[in-house]
Amino acid sequence: MAFKFFSRKKKPEPAPADPLVAFDAFIEDLERQAAEIRKSAAALLAVRGELNRSLERYEKRRGEIASRKAVAEERNDPKALSTLERDQLETQRLIEATRESLAKVETDAQLLGEASQDYNQRAAELKTERQSAHARLSAGLKVTEALRDRSERIRRMLALDAARDEIERAHALADIYREERDKGG
User: Fold this and answer.
1) CB 18: neighbour CB atoms within 10 A?
2) For range 79-105, the mean pLDDT
3) What DSSP letter does each residue of the chain carry, written as one string?
4) What is the number of other CB atoms lying within 10 angstroms of the CB of residue 30?
5) What are the domain boundaries of the chain?
6) CB 3.0-4.6 Å disulfide test: which of 4, 62, 80, 119 passes with 34?
7) pTM of the predicted model, to two decimals?
């Protein structure tokens, strides 16, 4: 008796969920992920624009340094030439680094674009599959309902047959008693 007090009651199992809810949840998740990927791709495109502008500035600076270097060579100014060569090397490193970053951003943006298309395609396929599943589920429910009606009709027919058999037995029993009564009479 004391154990009943401390024993846990078994929780009733939840009713089976609508199978279409699983499709809807997965489709929603895919669409959310695709949106996040598109947002990341858009951010990369903005970075690409900034990198292109930086590359243009560095290219322009390289041209300005080259023209100043030519002037310094004409004037034979070794100090200015040394400074301009350092500036030219630094600008060239910036150009190379920017081009590398730009190439990486291009690759990543393309990869994200492909991933977004993949997620959208998978979501579209699941939507089509969901529609098919919905149609099959609806048809299955109609068939089940029709079979339930048919089984109820069969059950009633069996009950009617059983009642007829009972009546036949009652008549047969009455006939037997009548015959015995008439014989013993």
Assistant:
1) 10
2) 94
3) -HHHHHSPPPPPPPPPPPHHHHHHHHHHHHHHHHHHHHHHHHHHHHHHHHHHHHHHHHHHHHHHHHHHHHHHHHHT-HHHHHHHHHHHHHHHHHHHHHHHHHHHHHHHHHHHHHHHHHHHHHHHHHHHHHHHHHHHHHHHHHHHHHHHHHHHHHHHHHHHHHHHHHHHHHHHHHHHHHHHHHHH-
4) 20
5) 30-184
6) 119
7) 0.57
Answer whether residue 61 shows pLDDT above 90.
yes
CB 84 within 8 A of CB 68: yes
Distance of alpha carbon 112 from alpha carbon 45, whole angstroms: 11
Q: 84: buried, middle or exposed (CB in 10 Å: 19+, 13-18, 0-12)?
A: buried
